[in-house]
Amino acid sequence: MYNIINLQKDIINSKQVMKKTLGAIFILIPLILSGCSVTEGEGSNIDTIDSTQPIITFPLAVTSIGQSIDLIILQGALETMQLDYACNSQLTAEDIHNYNTLLVAVGSSKKGMNFANVTLDQELERIHQLNKHVKDETTIILIHMGGVNRRGVESDKLIRNSFPLADGIIVIKDGNHDCFFSDYAKEHNIWFNEIDTIKDLQPLLEALIQN
Question: Boundaries of each DUF6305 domain copy (predicted)?
Answer without folding.
Answer: 59-208
